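User: Modeling request: complex.
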Amino acid sequence: MSELVRLTDVTKVYQGGITGALNGVSVSVEKGEFTAIMGPSGSGKSTMLNLVAGLDRPTSGSVSVGGTDLGKLGEAGLARFRRDHIGFVFQFFYLLPNLTALENVLIPAQLKGSPGTERARDLLDQLGIKDVGDRYPARLSGGQQQRVAIARALINNPTLLLADEPTGALDTHSGEHVMELLGQLHRDGQTILLVTHDAKLATRNAARVLSVMDGKIVDDARLESPERAPSEVIRVRGEEASR
Amino acid sequence: MRAILVKAVADLRRRRVQAAVIFLTVLLAIATGTMALTLMSQTRDPYQAAFDAQKGAHLQVSFHASTDPQLLATTPGIIGASAAGGPYPATTLEFKHAGQRFNVETFGRDNPAGDVEVLKVTSGRWAQTNDEIVLTRSFSELNKISIGDRIKVVSVSTAPTLTVVGEVVDIDEGSADLSSPQHSWMLRSAVPALTTPELSYYVMVYRFGTDPTSTQLKGDVDRIRASLPPGSISGSINYLLIRNIFNITNQIVTSVLAAFSVFALAATVATVATLVTGIVISAYREIGIMRAVGFTPAGVVGVFALQVVLPALVACLVGIPAGTLLSQPLLANSSHALGLAFVPSFSIPLDLMLLAGGLVVVSLAATLPALRAGLLKPITAISIASAPRGTSGRWLRRLAGRLRLPRAVILGFGDAFARPLRTVLTLVTVLLGVATVVVAVGLPRSFELINNSETGAGNYQVVVNRSNAFPDGDVMRILNAQPETTRVVAIDGENIAVSGIADPVNTRLFRGDSSRLSYEIIAGRWFNGPGEVLAPAGFLRDAHVKIGDTFTGSLYGQNLQLRVVGEVYDISNLGHELFMDYATLPSSIPNSTPGTYWVTLRPGADVNAYIQRVAAAQPDLIDVQANNTSIIGPVKIIDSVLLAIAAVLVLIGIGGVFNMLLLNTRERIRDTATLKAVGMSPRQVMVMVAASAALLALVAGVMAMPLGLELHRVLNDVISTSTGNDTPPSVYGVFNPLELVAIPLLGVAVAVAAALIPGRWAARTNVVEVLHAE
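Assistant: Request completed. Predicted assembly structure:
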């Protein structure tokens, strides 16, 4: 497998912040990996995801995705980069309320200038929501909304799928369904970077779990290796929480 | 109450841009309204004050020189006048000054005081010797003649030189730029040497105990006529006409101002309502919290209403004095024309009424949408955070989608109609702005068209006036001898008495091919021969005649059978004018030969060379000038007032669009952040916002065009009616099709420019901050 994401000595300090949200983080993600980032609130996990998506810029260090140094891109370049390479799934879905489900899915394709209607319908079908294409978000359940958001994230065949607490606003059943979908996508070859605070969800599908604490990666567990069982990762995560 | 004030002031600090929009919009509207009302309330008084102070004549009548002055002295008693002046010996005086020739009606009068028509000396003094003359101030200023200047009389063969010793204001004639010829005065003993029998006449001025009506004045003239030998009266004029001439500019300016003040007010109300609705919609959670901590529904309404009323109050406190100040130059102009010492005038009750009215209107515009905030249930407000958006823009997005427009444009189009009420209110502000621009573009052109028709712009290039001492035939010989001369139309003027019309009607008699002059013919045709006449609507109405009718006119006691063949546009004497062939005059009419010649030159001719050559042929007895086609001062005032109003309404319209976009972008900040997260570039965000503004402006512009054109038509009709005319059809059609497309497109361009700032804000949305804040 080849390297897809590389963070090199990345520090991020927010205005007014005394300590950094990220403090000298260096990590790489291979193409095809399903990586979960775990950590408590304020640990810096979402910041990492935002930096990889090009939504935010590091205070120092560099972020590259697919060989592209994001620090060298302007705002328009970052927008194109997101459009072409990134799919983003948010905790609160962030569907546009005045567009139908199908229109929401189509937005990134249309911004890119490609038609995508057939693919959008296929995606809705694959995600089990083909019947809700003409409905507005307000008339969808949380699970349906998140699946529409996943379809939107996938419409441009992104190199990297980023998911920030994708089950955080869902009930257990819907959350599990969403995680199954992500697992299936990974099995189909999609590189996924997932932020979650739920260790069980993380270890269920991710082959690798990065534990973040106070802006630093404190653990990097590859679950497919015999020496690190999921239970051990969960134990580590539990220790972090108790500190 | 204190809590409401504290919260409102704190919100104002937070919503500085909205406060600025309210301030500017209300400022512009209230200043325009103040100007209009101040002018309306103050302009009538100066004329009345001057008329009373100068004991203005209700009636002025001129008599042929053959009339017995003793008999004239009995006329005041015949009509029951409370005071009278005259008979003054009078003559038409032609003089040269600085190479130009002028005509004035000169009256022999030994002092400016009296019981009627007191002449107010504004500079210099009254004439003391027979070689001194006093002119009206407006005539001196218009023609740049100063006290001490020497003028050479050319209407008599002795060609004496007179010295200008004084300037006066005469309340019994219009200012020189609207009324010609002007009066002038010399000592009674000076007149005989400056006149010829054919130029001589007498003038009587009469004043009554109360202001007489037009009908009463007509009866008075008829009684004087009946008491004198036939044909004794050569002309008359009454104070109603002069008052109208004076008031006409102000009437037009104030009616234009008043109409557009209503527009400005409506646009302001729409902007304020949009703003408050927007603030309420985006502040649901805050409203819920306010209610939760103890604000009553009325308190919540108060907080939102105060946020608007406070900047509006400041705007009123600045705008009312500003509007009063801006109206002063126009008032000064009116006072100057009357010779009154200008005293800045304003009305404190009026200003207080404006302040109260402005605040009431703004308060209502703010309170009605704020009621929505007051009526919200706290738990609902807290839980839904902001008002749900409907799907109003859906059909538009679908339509735009079918046109395969870029997605950013489609989204922008949808946003434009996402909040229907906001959209409608914004459409109103833009619509009013564009409609005003249409009027501001069209009306000056209509004025120019009328000016061109009245001044013969592009029709004849040279105007020649001859002295009575130089025969008509000799002038024609000189003009026809010039190779550049293509056409000469000679003009004579007479006053013809017509049954039903109080004053003898000014009549223009044309000799030569007058059919190709550029007068606007509203109906019928130009005359083809003697006995056929054209007249403006005012004459036709007052004489109760129409095209095809025949009526009798009386000139020097001789009856003329005249047939109306056309209706012409002419603002002279408020529509009391007749146009006819010179050959209509009976040969027995004494001393009636044309004195003015309008000369059309062949294309490409050197006008200046022509003028110099013709003038050189008889330097003392003919005056040769290039045709003056410049627009008169009052029209320029109206044009500039219109331009200013259009600018005000365009600014309010821009404010409305800016305001709507600001509310939309702030309300949609999360959507914008999401769009950026899924790949929308900053440029696409700006395109989205601009598309929203462009569509609104386009819709408003398309709707505004018929409104603007109709308004242009109505204003033209009002102005034409006030000058005793119907509007010529050509005056309506001053727009070319390209402009009718260009004006809405210009509106789109302006709206897109107004969208730049909100668009830039939206484009700079920090995705992480916005989505994190959720």
